Amino acid sequence: MAKALIFDFDGVVADSEVLANTVLAEIVTELGVPTTVEDSYRAYLGKRFSEIIAEIEKTVGRTLPLSFSDQYQARTLDRFRQSLLPIAGVREFIARFDDVPRCIASSSSPDRLALCLDVLNMTSLFDGRVFSASNVERGKPYPDIFLHASASIGIPPSSCIVIEDSPSGVTAATAAGCTVVGLLAAGHIREDHGAFLKKAGAHYLALDYLEAERIVAELLD
Prior knowledge:
Layout: E1 4-7, H1 17-30, H2 37-44, H3 49-60, H4 68-83, H5 90-96, E2 102-106, H6 110-119, E3 130-132, H7 144-153, E4 160-164, H8 167-176, E5 179-183, H9 193-200, E6 204-206, H10 209-220
Parallel strand pairs: 1-2, 1-4, 2-3, 4-5, 5-6
Helix pairs in contact: 1-2, 1-4, 4-6, 5-10, 8-9
InterPro entries: Beta-PGM-like (IPR051600), HAD-like_sf (IPR036412), HAD-SF_hydro_IA (IPR006439), HAD_2 (IPR041492), HAD_sf (IPR023214), PGP-like_dom2 (IPR023198)
GO molecular function: hydrolase activity
Family: Belongs to the HAD-like hydrolase superfamily. CbbY/CbbZ/Gph/YieH family.
């Protein structure tokens, strides 16, 4: 029986991937390589920031200045302050399972997670239980962040349900030994995304949080 919920963040708690990838597309275009939001999804979705920087450098064919990281982060966070919204139904889902231990396990940086939770007025819902891949050796698709999260909350991976939206996150969570619900509720999700999540190993797919609630309720029964 599963006894804890582990949430990815971008695309699972916050509908942030559209905003973040719009900024990335704008920046790479400004650097001389025309890039659409769809291009950005294919190149950067689900990756840690260091991996994104490396991919941009590969795309534009040159090393980025040391100031780039701070400028990109500031621009992205400003877009979040202006326009970030939660995934529809996530608050109600959390309230439904309020007695179940929960945490966040994300590829995003601690600063970005803290700001986004503050913008969404959700900090108290995960207080002290927000884990970033920057705190482990390897990011998704490796299982490190989920193993770290489960150890931190004191519940074994086999007793954790992970809510994920990216193939790399699903791969990481299944490798850790968790039960994985692939969520298809965010603004960046495309028609074939569910097939990618199933291929990555998702045990269940949910089109929205109402469907995720039914799945999780059965797993907790």
